[in-house]
Design brief:
326 residues; alpha/beta; Cobalamin-bd; Cobalamin-binding protein; metal-binding; Cobalamin-bd_sf; cobalt
Length: 326
């Protein structure tokens, strides 16, 4: 049976069924059967595991799956990625480092990229989830890789991604960005100084096959276009505290509310950093969908209003907030 026919709707449904039941043995066996039938590693990881993970995220977002179900299914897919990776041969090309932006703990997508790049012959060092910029730059100075592959899933983490790009460029290592956190078609990757952006693991392989002009991808990255960016960075904790006080959530939900507010403030700062209102608007729409399924839209509106009142000395920032409130 051809690879094209094997990874279709029926195969995906079978894999999702294994995930739904947290059946790690069945999921691994399915992936190993595909490999035995000649399906390439990249196809198994991208067209099966990654696509299934997108469906898992949709089920969590709509409330049809609990956090526990999502975590159990993701753990099974992590085991599948490990089993598939164990079949990859020795490297024959250069060295790249794969890292997730600090604060992002969902590392499965990055692991898939790392294994697909390894399958293409590269030596890959996977640094894992939530890598602080200072730790990344120390490792780069020690090892001198050819490139950094940087994963950013959420746009509210873009400011931290910018710090990691800056650290990598200062170490003389170009950054290839990946993930939806860099915006549709990666529109914000170049703004923070990344050499290029790819939408998938296959794109990462293709980008590594191209020559990177180190002279244009090292040194100081482009500066932020708005002076209010630095002010917002300094006031981040204050803004989160003000918004949390305004909504005054019940004790049992206070921690979740604080996390959500911090993410929203980070998205605002990121929108200022890349000078693009679409970042904040899209993030607010995503957060509104998640909150609405849990009955919390009023909380989001109150947070936005509080931030607007606290930032009157920054008219452009206030205009961004008013635009997303509608």
């Amino acid at each position: 049976m051809s690879p094209e026919r094997r990874i279709g709707p029926e195969t995906l449904a079978a894999y999702l069924d294994h995930l739904d039941r947290a059946d790690r043995a069945g999921a691994i066996a399915l992936a190993q059967e595909l490999l035995a039938d000649g399906v390439p590693v990249a196809d198994v990881l991208v067209d099966l595991v990654a696509v299934a993970q997108q469906e898992i995220g949709r089920r969590w977002l709509t409330g049809s799956w609990s956090v526990a179900q999502e975590h159990a299914a993701t753990h099974v897919s992590e085991l599948v990625v490990g089993a598939v990776g164990a079949t990859i041969g020795a490297p024959r090309r250069g060295h790249v480092v794969m890292a997730c932006v600090e604060g992002e703990w969902h590392a499965l997508a990055a692991r898939i990229v790392a294994e697909v790049v390894r399958a293409a012959g590269w030596r890959v060092t996977f640094l894992g989830a939530s890598v602080p910029a200072r730790h990344l730059v120390s490792y780069l100075h020690q090892t001198g890789p050819d490139a950094v592959l940087l994963s950013c899933v959420q746009p509210n983490r873009l400011v931290r991604a910018a710090r990691m790009v800056e650290a990598s460029r200062a170490a003389g290592v170009p950054v290839l960005a990946g993930g939806p956190g860099f915006g549709p078609e990666g529109r914000w990757a170049a703004t923070i100084g990344a050499a290029a952006w790819g939408a998938s693991a296959r794109d990462a392989v293709a980008l590594l096959d191209r020559p990177l002009s180190a002279g244009t991808h090292i040194g100081a990255p482009p500066p932020p276009p708005d002076d209010s960016y630095v002010a917002l960075l300094h006031r981040r904790r204050e803004l989160v505290r003000l918004a949390l006080t305004a909504v005054d959530p019940p004790e049992e939900t206070a921690e979740d509310a604080a996390t959500g507010i911090a993410h929203l403030v980070d998205a605002l700062i990121a929108a200022v950093r890349v000078d693009d209102d679409r970042l904040l608007r899209d993030f607010v729409e995503w957060q509104a969908e998640a909150l609405t399924s849990r009955g919390g839209r009023a909380l989001l509106d109150e947070v936005l209003g509080t931030l607007e009142r606290a930032l009157t000395e920054h008219p452009r920032v206030v205009a961004r907030l008013r635009a997303v409130r509608g």
